[in-house]
């Protein structure tokens, strides 16, 4: 009997990646929500023990063994549950390309993600330009395909779609429209949202917005 | 006929990873040294075309197709040349662990690597503490095994060993001894250096030191 536990937090796009992958694969799992992900003292013992280096969600605990870092977890899931629809292309070159774009996207969102909602003025404008530029590059990579994975919703789609639940927050706080900047990217977003794995996983963008406002208040970010 | 070209620069540990992997696999390749990796105007057309996003080495060009980012290249090599000794463990859990430690090491060396040779005073001391702490964690992960890969020199060994050619530079500029701090880690370094793939790839630490002094001079870093 397989025991699969996912430690998560509802606004984390990295956790959403793992949830979507598990749902796409049809893997039964137990989800445990962390109470708070900002202060170590509020984190569960299980999280602190399972990810002593970063103390961050997501952690996938498979038969007692913890696996950390979302992309590494996606690779693990695809390697262990091979009998289901594969998330990674069978072609090493396309696998490399998907890994490259996920890495690129993660680096970009790390550098400009927080600036979009926590900064003001020039810093925020620079982050907005960087973010839109990143989306345009991805839009270009998507091209005329229905999904980044081609005809199939696959790894890169799973890795990118969760952040889109923050678009409303970014647009509201930074005064821009992703739809205007990247209409084809938004077509892809709507296409993905029609999948059960995605619609069941992504939270309401309005609730995400309220949460970000709460975080700003908690940490006294104007 | 396979055409394998590696675009590199002699002091880049990321390039060394790829070289070692190719040598371990016994894959014939053509190596092209970049003249300068600091200014885009001095980079080769081939590099700028093959890695338009980052414009950085290493790039592996396999039958005309470019693959960027060292870890992604290692995964690609292992997936394409399957018939040779595998770099990745066959066990998904150990693969995940190796990926985790490489990612951790890359993040740490990105945050404290340059500070070790380009900063002074408190910033340098903080970077030194962070770097030693990182090595101690890796030493702990190594445990009593001859290699990170267990009995075999494998992925994590290949990913970590190149940075050790900078240890002399770090020790000289920051006044500390890796041997004193992490003796078991240094035993592993000597073990790896006995392999032809490693000894043929890693440059002379004294030349690396001279190069770093030149770079400091060029960019007027005191």
Automatic annotation (TrEMBL), chains A, B:
It is an enzyme of class 2 (transferase). It catalyses: RX + glutathione = an S-substituted glutathione + a halide anion + H(+). Its EC number is 2.5.1.18. GO terms for molecular function: glutathione transferase activity. Keywords: Cytoplasm, Transferase. One of its GO terms (biological process) is glutathione metabolic process. Gene3D superfamilies: 1.20.1050.10, Glutaredoxin. One of its GO terms (cellular component) is cytosol. Residues 2-85 form the GST N-terminal domain. Residues 91-219 form the GST C-terminal domain. It is found in: Cytoplasm, Cytosol. The keyword Signal does not apply. Pfam families: GST_C_2, GST_N. CDD domains: GST_C_Tau (cd03185), GST_N_Tau (cd03058). The keyword Ribonucleoprotein does not apply. Is involved in the conjugation of reduced glutathione to a wide number of exogenous and endogenous hydrophobic electrophiles. Belongs to the GST superfamily. This is Glutathione S-transferase. It comes from Arachis hypogaea.
């Amino acid at each position: 009997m397989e025991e699969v536990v996912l430690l998560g937090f509802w606004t984390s796009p990295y956790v959403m990646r793992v949830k979507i992958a598990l749902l796409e694969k049809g893997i039964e799992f137990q989800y445990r929500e962390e109470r708070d992900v900002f202060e170590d003292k509020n984190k569960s013992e299980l999280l602190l023990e399972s990810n002593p280096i970063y103390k961050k969600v997501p952690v996938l605990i498979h038969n007692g063994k913890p696996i950390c870092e979302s992309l590494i977890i996606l690779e693990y899931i695809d390697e262990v549950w091979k009998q289901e629809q594969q998330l990674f292309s069978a072609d090493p070159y396309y696998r490399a390309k998907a890994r490259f774009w996920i890495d690129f996207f993660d680096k970009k969102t790390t550098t400009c993600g927080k600036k979009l909602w926590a900064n003001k003025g020039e810093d925020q404008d620079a982050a907005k330009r960087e973010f839109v530029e990143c989306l345009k590059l991805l839009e270009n990579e998507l091209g005329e395909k229905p999904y980044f994975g081609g005809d199939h919703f696959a790894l890169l789609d799973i890795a990118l779609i969760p952040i889109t639940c923050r678009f409303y927050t970014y647009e509201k706080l930074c005064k821009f429209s992703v739809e205007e900047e990247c209409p084809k990217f938004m077509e892809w977003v709507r296409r993905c949202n029609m999948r059960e794995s995605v619609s069941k996983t992504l939270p309401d963008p309005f609730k995400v917005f309220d949460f970000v406002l709460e975080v700003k208040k908690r940490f006294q970010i104007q």
